[in-house]
């Protein structure tokens, strides 16, 4: 029941050959029309992709502050959970030790 069952590979019964595929040669014909080079594209004047207005800068600062506060609250709550768990384990250890020494 606890031994793994290894599947057995069935042995081939005879000589197996793949079906023959017919390969026909193809001819390559050169293109009759000459290749025309693409037309030159006029350069686009470069300008910054993102324009920061005072409103967008304020929104970015507010969003970043909110993210930092949320992440900080999560990390502090995790640290408190670990500290409370460690304290309760320490109290349990002291109680068990005192029960075992009274025997």
Overview in brief:
With 103 residues, the chain is an all-alpha fold.
Question: Keywords, please?
Answer:
mainly alpha; 103 residues
Folded structure, characterized:
- The protein is mostly helical.
- It contains one helix and no strands.
- It has one helix at 54-102.
- It is flat and about 100 Å long.
- The mean pLDDT is 82.
Please specify the SSE layout and strand pairing.
Layout: H1 54-102
Strand content: under 5%
Mean model confidence by pLDDT: 82
What is the total tally of β strands?
Answer: 0
Count of DSSP-assigned helices: 1
Terminal CA distance: 44 Å
Give the helix level as a range of percent: 40-55%
- Mass-distribution shape: flat
Rg, Å, rounded:
38 Å
Query: Would you identify the regions where 5 or more consecutive residues have pLDDT less than 50?
Result: none
Biggest sheet architecture: none
Provide the structure class.
mainly alpha
What's the helix-strand series? H
